[in-house]
Write a structure and sequence with these properties.
The chain is α+β, with helices and mostly antiparallel strands and about 210 residues long. The chain is built from five helices and 13 strands.
């Protein structure tokens, strides 16, 4: 049974990150074809970058309000132009939220991580040409998705991760606040139920230090 709830949350980075990867209209690849993120329902099978399917367990959304108080930097959107990452990736311009991470590949990652792939913030790739930083001028709805396990799903042809709080979130929140955070995910009992990250994450600074 699908449940829908509206809850007030503190404007903390850990909470905002759980809701802000995909903008309204972002096309998510499902087993039945591309579906706009706002139309997805828990239980839908999403297509992963490795060709497998994963079940959508949770969808969350918040509204970014320009000029609203925040404890961090003002949240921005990122417009990815057609073919920015290769032919049809994306096929048409597509905006993403500030929390989107994209699967990046470079051979130099193997020495550091034992793999040639890592998840990197899409925001770190903004160059003003193929990826453009956008300041919202009106309230904007943004979304994130939780799957059975941490997964790399396809959004507008790009390999983007599903939500996972990462190991830093339990360390950054007091116990009571962490319990409040977990109330947003009623299908989980504990933050450990998110499981392991399927792919390593790197900050923009870490990646740039490797490829420099």
């Amino acid at each position: 049974m699908v449940q829908s709830n509206v809850t007030v949350a503190p404007a903390l980075p850990a909470f905002e990150a759980a809701f802000n990867a995909f903008t309204h209209g972002a096309l998510i690849q499902t087993s039945a074809g591309p579906v706009a993120v706002e139309d997805l329902e828990p239980g839908t099978d999403l297509e992963c970058a490795n060709g497998q399917l994963t079940k959508l367990m949770w969808k969350g959304a918040i509204t970014l309000v320009p000029g609203a108080p925040t404890l961090g930097e003002p949240l921005k959107l990122y417009r990815v132009m057609p073919d920015a990452f290769g032919l049809g990736r994306p096929a048409q311009d597509q905006s993403f939220g500030p929390g989107a991470r994209r699967l990046d590949r470079t051979p130099k990652l193997r020495a550091a991580l034992g793999t040639e792939t890592a998840l990197v913030p899409l925001a770190s790739m903004a160059d003003g040409h193929s990826i453009i930083e956008v300041n919202p001028v009106s309230p904007t709805r943004v979304y994130h998705l939780v799957c059975e396990d941490h997964a790399i799903i396809l959004a507008a042809g790009l390999e983007v991760e599903s939500f996972h709080p990462g190991p830093e979130t339990p360390l950054s929140l007091p116990s009571e606040m962490l319990q409040f955070f977990m109330r947003f995910f009623p299908h989980l009992n504990d933050v450990r139920d998110f499981g392991r990250l399927s792919t390593a994450r790197m900050t923009a600074e870490e990646l740039h230090s490797l490829v420099a």
